[in-house]
Amino acid sequence: xxxxxxxxxxxxxxxxxxxxxxxxxxxxxLGGLRDSAATGLLNIDAAELREVxxxxxxxxxxxxxxxxxxxxxxxxxxxxxxxxxxxxxxxxSDVATWARLNRDFCSRLTHPLRASRPLLCDLVRSLxxxxxxxxxxxxxxxxxxxxxxxxxxxxxxxxxxxxxxxFAARITVGHLNRSMKYGLxxxxxxx
Length: 191
Description:
This protein has helices at residues 14-22, 26-38, 46-68, 72-91, 95-110, 118-130, 132-141, 144-162, 165-190. By secondary structure, it is an all-alpha fold. It is globular, with a radius of gyration of 17 Å.
């Protein structure tokens, strides 16, 4: 309900309304909201979003470059699995489902790195999760952003498959810069 935009937290009725809608009690609802806030789905401000994207811009290009430098067999399997999700993302119109597919795409693409770089993978995943809410908000406001992300991802998959570390890093930086710009814009529109 958070990712689909059904829950709006800028009203006094948010907790009772959420409790009624989910059919749960207040303690369970508060626990869920606490967990959501801890993962960045709630209460992120512009300064924190900039910090998250700054960190992502330092780590994700490195991860993509290292992924492109892996043996061809590892790259090929990861790229094939990620491309399958891109095909699903092409036809998905529900923003929350698209966001889940986006998360799964990133996870499948970076899977070969988990064995050699588990900390890097965990940091990248954690930072992505912290920016998920703004991504969803931006996609609700401008659905065409999903098409741009898919174009970026298709290029990224192609250059990783080819083993071009430098280009993989550059594509990632460009994608993150656009994502931050639209995430900040959506944050300003909400506030």
